[in-house]
Amino acid sequence: MLVENDNFKKSSYFPTLIFQSDLADCEGLNGDLLSAIRAERSQDDTGITRSNVSGLGGWHSKNYLHRSEAFAGMVARVNSVSARISLELGYSDRHELRIGTMWAIVNPPGSLNIAHVHPGCLWSGVYYVQAPENSGNIEFIEPRTVNLMNQARFLADTKRPRECWTKVNYMPRAGRMIIFPSWLYHSVRLNNSDASGSDAERVIISFNLSQHKKK
């Protein structure tokens, strides 16, 4: 039995923030990035292994792409969104969020990225250069593992309140940038695209952000 109580209220603390920015007029940028990434891969086809599974065909570049002139346009876009985040959160105006590492990942059909975090930084991000249909959502996982040990039962066939979600998925879309706390576990689902050739590849730029004193 529900009892009316004028003092009943709900408060939300310790939120997990995820920022999304869908860049307008990004076709030219994406074309330039795609060419630059393929040039990088032609010079280093082996790449490195991190959350990608190289045995499934996923390729991961070296992590210093932000130092290359070929990626200056991407760096400028990241800096713009990072400045907006700093303003939104009331960060010190004597500091700025700055890219520490930036890399590319190419995932053909059948490849994925296992769950992982990004240590040693405040925020991490992904930008979709090419994202064909069914090429794999990025999935964020409830960070409070104790909350997964004994879950409540919810009404059947009813969407849970957002505060009670244990997983969140974002669909990849060319021109979309997602920035999230570096400690937040995330993975990328299997690329199931049925597009032809290189058009089936999910191509992304990832980066890490740390706070530094302004020069």
Polypeptide structure, described:
- With 215 residues, this protein is of the alpha+beta class.
- Helices cover 16% and strands 28% of the residues.
- The protein is built from 2 helices and 10 strands; from the N terminus they run βαβαββββββββ.
- The chain has helices at 27-43, 72-89, and strands spanning 19-22, 59-60, 95-107, 113-116, 123-130, 138-141, 167-170, 176-181, 186-188, 202-213.
- A 6-stranded antiparallel sheet has the order 1-8-5-10-3-2. Strands 4-9-6-7 form a 4-stranded antiparallel sheet, with no helix packed on it.
- The longest helix has 18 residues, at 72-89.
- The chain is globular, with a radius of gyration of 19 Å.
- 29% of the residues are buried.
- The model has no long low-confidence stretch (mean pLDDT 94).
Keywords:
single chain; 215 residues; alpha+beta; six-stranded antiparallel beta sheet; four-stranded antiparallel beta sheet; globular
Order of helices and strands: EHEHEEEEEEEE
| Helix content, binned percent | 10-25%
Global shape: globular
- End-to-end separation in angstroms reads 62 Å
- Number of helical stretches of at least 4 residues: 2
User: Which regions have little confidence, pLDDT < 50, spanning 5+ residues?
Assistant: none
Strands in their spatial order, largest beta sheet: 1-8-5-10-3-2
Let me know the number of strands: 10
Secondary-structure-based class equals alpha+beta
- Alpha carbon gyration radius: 19 Å
For the biggest sheet, the summary is:
6 strands, antiparallel
Query: How much strand content do the residues show?
Result: 25-35%
What is the arithmetic mean of pLDDT? Answer: 94
